[in-house]
Amino acid sequence: MSIKRIAINTGGGDAPGLNAVIRSVVLAALNRGWECLGILDGYNGLLYPEAYPHGWYRHLDRDSVRGITHLGGTIIGTTNRGNPTSFPVQGPDGTWIEVDRTEEIAAALRAEAIDALIAIGGDGSLSIAHALAERGVRVVGVPKTIDNDLDETVATFGFDTAVAFASDCLDRLHSTAESHQRIMVVEVMGRYAGWIALFAGVAATADAILIPEIPYDIHKVADKVRQRDEAGRKFSIIVVSEGAKPVGGEFTIIGKQIGQAERLGGVGHKVGEALQQLCGKETRVVQLGHLLRGGTPTATDRLLSLRFGAAAVRALAEGYANVMVALDPPTVRYVPLEKVAGRMKTVPLDSDTMLTARDLGISFGD
Questions:
Q1: Which of 56, 240, 266, 310 has a CA that sits 20 to 30 A from residue 318's CA?
Q2: How many Å apart are CA 315 and CA 323, to the nearest integer?
């Protein structure tokens, strides 16, 4: 099928590199004579039309994407609310139920003569994209998440920037921790996969790293702190992924709202309080949170984003549909969306980075 008009959307949490993908897609498409539309705020422009009196999309031309490669965020907006596959609706009795509205989105795209959709997002967004593909929408996905937890791709854009920023923060905390002889606990994002905590922790010489893949024993973390004290190293740096949990324990959940995934966070404070009691040392907790999402993407993330965007357009031009572009060095390949939707890439416990961390004496609380 020949292509004349495509749409782009960005969904889920923002990540450094989104604007670079948008620019790459738009320029590659325009160079093929295609028109580009940007769906506003994930799919919210379609799900809440009353909130968008001027329409649910924005025309994207060369002027729209000029000078945005280095900018964080996304010029067409994003959201992690209002999943159209399980959209919250209040029933007549006041209770909330979840309904599937993907057919409405597919119909709206057809009504605007949109030939294909490039969906930029993480596991949730690409699961929605897969659902749209099953309803006849021609889709190409682009893997985005700072957590690096999407399957079938060596890396996602946004991850390198998050690791670089977290590493810089850890470097800064070393000096204050040593000056005051404190334990510094640093909580980073990573709901169910500990890639950020692992990479930043190893790069910035943390003393312990707690990740979702390895339930931790807080007493073993305390042992690591005491060993350092006995060796004359009177401070410790502990990196904790937000999805870390103790042996036999559960995730630390802030809350959950209808139409949203559960929100994790706060495990750093639990770890900090426990270590202060067990070790008798002054402890401080730093939660990096959304600081990891913002700001200028690194050169690595900019290049990966531009490669992914151009590859997504090439995939459509070559006749592919319902695939995700994936990094497979030195190339970008196309993976069926059904192999990605609902799957997660966790840290392999026998990976070289894990083995390096253990050889360096870093504790994982196990």
A1: 56
A2: 8
